[in-house]
Amino acid sequence: xxxxxxxxxxxxxxxxxxxxxxxxxxxxxxxxxxxxxxxxxxxxxxxxxxxxxxxxxxxxxxxxxxxxxxxxxxxxxxxxxxxxxxxxxxxxxxxxxxxxxxxxxxxxxxxxxxxxxxxxxxxxxxxxxxxxxxxxxxxxxxxxxxxxxxxxxxxxxxxxxxxxxxxxxxxxxxxxxxxxxxxxxxxxxxxxxxxxxxxxxxxxxxxxxxxxxxxxxxxxxxxxxxxxxxxxxxxxxxxxxxxxxxxxxxxxxxxxxxxxxxxxxxxxxxxxxxxxxxxxxxxxxxxxxxxxxxxxxxxxxxxxxxxxxxxxxxxxxxxxxxxxxxxxxxxxxxxxxxxxxxxx
Length: 344
What we know:
- Helix content is 53%, strand content 17%.
- By secondary structure, the protein is an alpha+beta fold.
């Protein structure tokens, strides 16, 4: 094989739908409003072919109030080989985690997703006196008053201010927790919907960018084809001239053997096969863009094939112009690879 030192190996760096149902916050022009009944179902398998290209980058936020608590979900998504959901929940809310992971698995396929929940009490808890503590404090104050002649009687507000006399009123904890958990699950479902929409919008912009890059690669491929059209014949003629001069100096070399070697070297300098495969890869990439749904892994593999053909083209090049086009082709493919990393 004829190796070109100018062109080496490139460095390779390598939907919504949710099973939740029940009360769910709704979005309005001013943000979250009161909860409203809603039933959500997962997408049917037959509809997946209708999907659009989705990015793995996105952000979504929902908030609301339920059971005396104000809450907010923030979801951030970036590139990832698979789906990695990292939940940050306040203490005491671990019980809702399995349902959240199930919902995320149905709505998303790939990406590193960080989901953060913040919860705070909307109002101060109602206080009630602790009878035992109050009796003990009153007994101590009366005993002290009896030992101090002329001291004033104890005042109620002073007794209630003593530590431990007042405590938060008991609430129906189970009912409150269930209502809050249902609201948090519904809020997470709404945030997932918003995240999927954000990723789809980013995917639409990404599809336009990728289309332009494929057009550039196709144009460079046509330029390379024009530059390489006469390369085998030129290479053969150049080699024959050099060998003719050699034969004049060393006539004992068999001419038929020399002719076979010349033909083999000329065939190795023919880049039409690489250009044909590159054209096929471009068509396959456009088909993946049209398919849209969950094509990130396949697209990433296809770009590796792009790069392999460009490397071989450069290594076979015997002309400066073709080498320059091969280098531009490799740079365009590298830019394509960087963008493909964002596809779900």
